């Protein structure tokens, strides 16, 4: 791939203020894309924007609660007003609650479903119209190994990620004539600030590594590299699928 193969294209990364989202935003910018990042933590957004700017990227940051339709609609309008177009949408914003299904409250159920499913749908609903008619488009939905398997305490989270995988397939078929591909990425255990407490606990860390054939944590940059490939012309025949990057976890 040419080093600046995304020159002139505009990418939106939700939850782009840290972890996988931040790594993906930086990777897309490094390939020449103009980048809009969103998040709810203004301090983290500012940190990521500073990194993008320092790298010479044309970038902007927007505070947005992806669960709120009015905010997402305005986000799409603001991004197009700032950059003039949208070519790439990375739906990375998400959350997790570890609790058995019958112990969930309605508020906790809504917190997960509104963020992990509704937020992805709203982003697609309001950004896709701006992506049509350009002869190129990429939608990348971050799912999880929990879109392929599940475990105790991960039932509701798993349900949301299975839903996103299904949405990815349907959207890919709906947009095929517009030359917009839609691909999901399912990460395994990735070393980010969100997983820092697990990595810091020797017992929990060892238990997770025992379940991972490669016996290590994945890196956010590895997920970002996959996203970058999906955005390339070499991946133009890839759509409607869910790519695992999990150190062999789901091969067991």
**Low-confidence runs of at least 5 consecutive residues:** none
Measured on Cα atoms, how large is the radius of gyration? 17 Å
Cα-to-Cα separation, first versus last residue: 33 Å
The fold-level CATH name is Rossmann fold
Number of helices: 8
Strand portion, in percent?
15-25%
- Quaternary structure of the protein: single chain
Description:
The chain is an alpha/beta fold. Helices cover 44% and strands 17% of the residues. Helix 2 (42-54) links the parallel strand 2 (34-39) and strand 3 (59-63). The model has no long low-confidence stretch (mean pLDDT 96).
Blueprint (SSEs and pairs):
Layout: E1 10-14, H1 19-30, E2 34-39, H2 42-54, E3 59-63, H3 69-83, E4 88-91, H4 106-131, E5 137-142, H5 155-175, E6 180-187, E7 190-191, H6 196-200, H7 202-210, E8 218-219, H8 220-230, E9 242-245
Parallel strand pairs: 1-2, 1-4, 2-3, 4-5, 5-6, 6-9, 7-8
Helix pairs in contact: 1-8, 3-4, 4-5
Summarize this, please?
With 252 residues, this protein is of the alpha/beta class.
List keywords for this structure.
globular; seven-stranded parallel β-sheet; 252 residues; alpha/beta; Rossmann fold
């Amino acid at each position: 791939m040419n080093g600046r193969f995304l020159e002139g294209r505009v990418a939106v990364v939700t939850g782009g203020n840290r972890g996988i989202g931040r790594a993906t935003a930086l990777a897309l910018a490094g390939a020449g894309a103009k980048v809009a990042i969103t998040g709810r933590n203004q301090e983290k957004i500012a940190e990521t924007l500073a990194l993008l700017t320092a790298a010479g990227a044309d970038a902007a940051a927007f505070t947005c609660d992806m669960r709120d339709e009015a905010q997402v609609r305005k986000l799409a309008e603001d991004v197009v007003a700032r950059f003039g177009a949208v070519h790439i949408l990375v739906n990375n914003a998400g959350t997790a609650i570890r609790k058995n299904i019958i112990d969930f409250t309605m508020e906790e159920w809504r917190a997960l479903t509104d963020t992990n499913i509704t937020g992805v749908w709203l982003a697609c609903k309001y950004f896709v119209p701006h992506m049509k008619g350009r002869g190129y488009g990429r939608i990348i939905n971050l799912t999880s190994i929990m879109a392929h398997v599940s475990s105790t305490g991960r039932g509701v989270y798993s349900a949301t990620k299975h839903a996103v995988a299904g949405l990815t397939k349907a959207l890919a078929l709906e947009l095929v004539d517009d030359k917009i591909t839609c691909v999901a990425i399912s990460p395994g255990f990735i070393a980010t600030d969100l997983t820092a407490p697990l990595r810091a606990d020797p017992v929990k860390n060892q238990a997770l590594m025992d379940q991972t054939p490669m016996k290590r944590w994945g890196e956010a940059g590895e997920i970002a590299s996959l996203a970058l490939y999906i955005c390339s012309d070499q991946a133009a025949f890839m759509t409607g699928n869910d790519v695992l990057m999990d150190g062999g976890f789901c091969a067991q």
